[in-house]
Design brief:
The protein is of the alpha/beta class and 349 residues long. It contains 15 helices and 7 strands. It binds adenosine-5'-diphosphate and magnesium ion (MG).
Length: 349
């Protein structure tokens, strides 16, 4: 979303979607029950942030709504999305957290799978690394656990996390000697009771990322507005093509790959022109929504919150809200699954 434009939906708070009927799972809440409202919260001075840091670590997790399995009968297979760029720092984790949280606030049941051994997805959504032992490493390893053994609730109602730990890196090394190693995650994600699963990938095109590609029906590649973040795009598209030829998903076609431009700063005119020119061949594969560089996004990460809960009036919140709407419109076009009229009719600017 470009500066000066209003977000497409109003942001009235509705934190509790536990009481929704199963039918409503594919029909997100109407305008007035969407993403948390603008509050009086404003950006805090740095020293106050540090004061709050201690509180964050002693805070207990808010009580959570119903288990995901309870309403699963009403839904089809989850729509699985990989967030991939082999470069670090392009906005993968930020996009995973904020797009997932936006969809959860719209009433969907969403699982984030952290496939990066750094475990940033969990940290970013306030899951204490000391609160779990088993993680994606155990799911991907030979003595594997099932996803339901490791999935944790988050403070956002309707949003769950399959966390990662650093030893996922060792497990990944061992995967190279396994047969069907690219399909391990695909098997693990079978029959899970969510509407959407977002896989936050590590910054490489290694075996973990190939597993994510194989498992997913849609790919989002966040590209930071800088020369180097585009350089790997050709390699990435090649990997997508290669995995596509192996993968079973009917949906897995090239046109369900989307680039997301992130950290856009309109003051950087020369860089912006360069990147937009480079991206021109892929313009039909690029989200119209552009994520502006916005300090609230950084600060929300420090507070281990989605940006909607840190500063709902920020451009970061508005941009990720619009991305959720554009994503849902595309999801509807690809799958035919109904979404709310307010979402379908919202302009993408
Ligand atoms: N739109 C944005 N505006 C400002 N900072 C951002 C934005 N998106 C991401 N960041 C910051 O950039 C850094 C890298 O983002 P991250 O999502 O962790 O990247 P990746 O997962 O691709 O390595 C983080 O510190 C994050 O807070
Ligand atoms: Mg990351």
């Amino acid at each position: 979303m470009l500066p000066g434009k209003d977000p497409p939906l109003t942001r009235q708070a509705s934190r509790d979607n536990a009481a929704r009927s199963p039918e409503s799972l594919h029909s997100p809440a109407p305008r007035d029950a969407a993403i948390p409202s603008a509050s009086t919260k404003s950006l805090r001075p740095r020293e106050k942030l540090w004061d709050r840091w201690d509180k964050l670590h002693s805070r207990s997790r808010p009580p959570h709504s119903a288990e995901p399995g309870e309403q699963s009968a009403a839904r089809g297979a989850p729509f699985i999305v990989s967030i991939i760029n082999q470069k670090g720092g392009t906005g993968k984790t930020t996009t995973t957290i904020n797009l997932s949280a936006a969809l959860a606030y719209l009433g969907y049941r969403v699982l984030m799978v952290d496939l990066d051994p750094q475990g940033h997805t969990g940290i970013g959504i306030g899951v204490d690394p000391d609160s779990f032992i088993e993680s994606m490493a155990e799911v991907m390893s030979i003595h594997r656990k099932s996803m339901s053994d490791i999935i944790l609730p988050t403070y956002v109602s309707g949003l769950w996390l399959a966390p990662a730990r650093i030893h996922l890196a060792h497990v990944a090394e061992q995967l190279y000697s396994r047969v069907f190693r690219e399909a391990i995650l695909h098997q693990a994600l079978q029959s899970l009771p969510y509407d959407f699963i977002f896989i936050d990938c590590p910054p490489s095109l290694g075996v973990l990322t190939i597993n994510a590609l194989y498992a997913s029906g849609f790919i989002i590649t966040p590209c930071q507005m800088s020369r180097y973040s585009l350089e790997g795009l050709a390699d990435l598209l090649l990997s997508v093509e290669m995995v596509k030829s192996l993968a079973p998903q009917e949906l897995f076609k090239r046109n369900i790959f989307r680039i997301l431009l992130t950290m856009f700063d309109k003051r950087n005119k020369v860089t912006n022109e360069y990147v937009l020119e480079e991206i021109r061949p892929y313009r039909d594969l690029t989200f119209k929504t552009i994520i502006l560089r916005n300090e609230a996004i950084n600060q929300a990460q420090i507070e281990q919150r989605a940006v909607f809960d840190f500063d709902p009036a920020s451009t970061g919140a508005a941009d990720y809200q619009q991305l959720a709407v554009e994503f849902l419109q595309l999801y509807h076009r690809l799958t035919g699954v109904p979404v709310a009229d307010t979402v379908l009719q919202a302009p993408i600017v």
